[in-house]
Design a protein that fits this description.
Elements lengths: L2 H30 L10 E5 L5 H10 L6 H10 L9 E5 L5 H10 L5 E5 L5 H9 L6 H8 L2 H6 L14 E5 L5 H15 L2 H9 L4 H14 L6 H13 L7 H8 L36 H8 L8 E4 L7 E4 L2 H17 L5
Length: about 350
């Protein structure tokens, strides 16, 4: 082979190697660093606890996340992600590459979810609300709420445990355990009950749980912010005088029917510790999880001499307040007349 021919052969080989290297680099770039997300908006995927790698792939396919699953699979195996699947909620953004997705999933770099709860009356309703937003099941929540050994850890009983939950929006991990969720809510409870609120409860000579129980009654009576402190003051007046609270919402709770518009005399005889027409003082637990507004309405109750209240006859949701039973009977008669005119018997 002549010298000139050798040079040509070497040159061709070098060009071939360069081209192959370039092609390899381009291919590596395509599968590793080039975006592989087909969804046009941020998308959340949820990976349950104990999920397999195949279940992750199935979730990606169900949500139509990727263009090319073969390239993702190669990177995932290269980085040993199938052996390191971690549960959680993950945010996939447009323009993410296989490499960035695998790194996020493998490291467990999940996005917290915004958990919101309010307007809840019972443990079952609370458990359902939480289970609808997190991986926790209703049964897991209910088991803890009804376990006296568990509630004792937080200095509540199975009646007062719902007073631990402060309605708000919280950021939590989607796959948080039921026990860790409770611990988080207890920490939020302690933040809410700051020195100022604790001092006001002490001045009322009421525990935090008692304040919350009264707030639950106040809120069931009326959701209006301007009337709640007045209602709270009325019930505090009755408690201080040793009078029965005679709060209709507690009867509705005992009857498990909040749609009732007309309380009957037979309702007042129900054998339930939540019957405040029959048993003195506060009921053993809240009749709903009251809002922050209602709790603060009790702590900042209006000072007045009212002892009685009755829904207004215009069905506005507001109340007529009275200082004497005679005044109250007149107000009650107007409301009964309005009920009769509308044919409301229950």
């Amino acid at each position: 082979m002549t010298k000139k021919r050798k040079i040509i052969v070497i040159t061709v080989c070098l060009i071939t190697l360069i081209c192959m290297g370039a092609a390899t680099c381009f291919y590596a770039y395509r599968i590793l660093l080039h975006d592989n997300v087909q969804c046009k908006e941020n998308t959340l995927i949820y990976i349950p606890t104990h999920s397999t790698y195949q279940q992750v792939i199935d979730s990606l396919k169900t949500n139509k996340i990727l263009y090319n699953y073969n390239s993702f699979n190669r990177i995932a195996h290269l980085k040993k992600y199938p052996q390191k699947v971690k549960a959680g909620c993950y945010k996939i953004t447009p323009s993410m590459s296989n490499n960035s997705i695998v790194n996020m999933l493998r490291s467990g770099n999940q996005k917290p979810v915004r958990l919101t709860f309010n307007n809840i009356r019972t443990k079952k309703a609370f458990a359902k609300k939480i289970a609808g937003q997190l991986e926790i099941t209703e049964e897991e929540i209910l088991n803890l709420l009804t376990d006296s050994r568990f509630t004792d850890q937080y200095h509540f009983d199975t009646n007062t445990i719902l007073t631990m939950f402060i309605p708000n929006t919280y950021e939590v991990w989607w796959n948080i355990s039921a026990e860790n969720f409770m611990e988080r809510m207890f920490n939020e409870y302690n933040k809410f009950w700051n020195q100022n609120r604790c001092q006001k409860a002490a001045e009322l000579q009421m525990s935090k749980a008692e304040v919350t129980i009264l707030a639950s009654i106040v809120e069931e009576e009326n959701h209006l912010a301007d009337e709640q402190p007045v209602i709270a003051g009325l019930y505090i007046n009755r408690l201080r005088k040793g009078m029965l609270l005679q709060a209709d919402p507690t009867l509705k709770y005992a009857l498990n029917d909040f749609t009732i518009q007309r309380i009957l005399n037979k309702d007042k005889e129900i054998a339930s510790p939540y019957n405040t027409y029959k048993y003195q003082g506060l009921p053993p637990g809240p009749i709903r999880i009251p809002s922050i507004q209602a709790i603060d309405a009790v702590l900042n109750y209006a000072h007045h001499d009212y002892l009685y209240m009755c829904a207004k006859e215009d069905f506005s949701g507001r109340h007529n307040f009275a200082k004497t039973n005679a005044q109250h009977e007149r107000n009650a008669a107007k409301y009964r007349h309005a009920l009769n005119q509308r044919g409301i018997k229950r």
